[in-house]
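Appendix C reproduces, verbatim, an entry submitted by the partner laboratory led by Prof. M.T., so that reviewers can inspect both the input and the predicted structure.
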Amino acid sequence: MQFNEIIAQEELKHRLVQMVQKNRLSHALLFLGHEGSGALPMSIAFAQYILCERIQPRKKQAENSLFAESPEESNPVFREDSCGVCSSCIKVQQLIHPDLHFSYPSLRKDSNHKMVLSTDFITEWREFIAKHPYGNVTGWLDFLKQHPKARIDSSTNKQGNITVNECDEIGKKLSLKSFEGVHKILIMWMPEFLGPSGNKLLKLIEEPPSNTIFILVAEDENEILPTILSRTQLIRVPLFSNRDIEKALIEKEIPSEKALQIAAISEGNYLEALKMLHNAEEDWEEGIRSWLNVILKRNVNSQLKWIEEISKLGREKQKQFLKFFIHLLQQAVKVRYINSENLETITPEQQDFAQRLNSMCSLEGQEAIVNELEKAMYYIERNAHGKMLFHALTIRLYHIIKDNSLILVH
């Protein structure tokens, strides 16, 4: 994976290149970025840059070798990105480079396997990264459970972890000399899953073998062992701007209006934007209109029918529906206080809908609705019963807006 395959983040890419070129590379780094920020693909691109034969020369052949090095190998030049064509780059792109190791949360295989090691799932890992480079840990563990070749024990811990056996295995891997390049690199994804067993890595991180680089990729620094956190150089990976996501979606040939809408709702989370893209055919705005109409008309039969339909959707779609409603309410606040000519992230249709929301509900009421929607999303993530949740939410929204009687028609 090259830097140019990662959307935006140009300032961070330049900083990482300068760390290598100016020989300021720390032996332990922590890439810290929220879900959907691209911290994992960025770390892989950084590893490829370090291992690239055009950046760092390959191991020198023995003096009596019959095979001389090429001029490019013996005289690496300045590059802003890995070359992408040398032997090392090709191997990193396929995640098969012998000097690049990975550690990540795993689940127990069938009852015949007593230890849980990342290498047990390396084939599935390569497949997951190829399909979902911006994926999160929930997506990875679900991918493992559903993969026919993973053979996950049905009674296993569903949360996943990085075990003490994995820590021992890391020590063995890094005690070996590099096979091809100057450096050997370990990328540990989600060190939050280490637990107390992570203390076994302290000495290895503090005094690593020669030319060894640890790259930890995390989302929440508060969940990382403080003893490990204090031994790493922090690299913050910011969330994307709405413009970055909009541009990336347009490059995928998404209509600009739809790209603008998805970018505004995703709030810098590219993974969330990709999920919304898969559900782009859903007309959330029409769904919200229908919901508010049946609430305001107090038509119980229509309410029950609507609740039945929304409860059939999966959790992700339900969350996206509520998130889009929150987005519309936020736009309504902007329309209330900002001149419409200065609103770049709102379509004419949404502006009309926002004005109707403002007529229907006061600012305090809109704030109360947002709080209810956020709580509903929280409970959906924890497997709340769909029908009960939306039934209760419908009643709550009615009591918030019962003093208003505007029907939201087209």
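The first helix runs from residue 10 to 21. Additional entries are available on request from the coordinating office.
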